[in-house]
User: What shape does this take?
Amino acid sequence: MPASIDFYFDFSSPYSYIASEWIEALAARHGRTVHWKAILVGATFQATGLKSPLDHPIKREYSLHDFERSARFAGVPLKIPNKFPVPTQNAARVFWWLHDKEPATASHWARHCLRACFARGADLSDVSALQGLAAEFGLDPAQAQAVWTDPAWKARLKAVNDAAITAGVFGAPFFVIDNEPFWGNDRRPQIERWLEKGPF
Assistant: This one.
């Protein structure tokens, strides 16, 4: 059976949101499965000495424009939250808690939160908002909060970030296919070519 696709994403990344809307269907067309991996892209920035493009005025203006253009091109709705970017480690900790019980449920949680954030403008850093999203998803909000405040799940996310950085991941979305890395939502044509015909 062909190897799964590692899909590293960040809950605060519009490009991760856009990629999350196409990666599963693309993988399925080529007999692949997707291994979703929630990371904190801020940790990769720290490791590489980089800053978010949104921290630079000229890059911020372009990036906000490109988020909108890329979403239109992909045919997905986009509504950037009023407060953006925001820390999203709590959603990521819940992801890994779900992942260790049932990976498919975790990927559904990821899409639920990404769509809430970038199609509805939800603030994933707001405790009440995230509790509400947990309830919508069918989780006990109190249990979800207990997870994201639990030192064990904080450590789990840190370990995942460290492993991703060691593996060469420096941004999101980031894909690894047959040990070949692809960075960015705009690498979709290359990913499709690779899956269809193999290495090039």
User: Anything to note?
Assistant: The chain has a mean pLDDT of 94. The first helix runs from residue 14 to 20. The domain at 5-197 is CATH 3.40.30.10 (Glutaredoxin). The chain has one domain: 5-197.
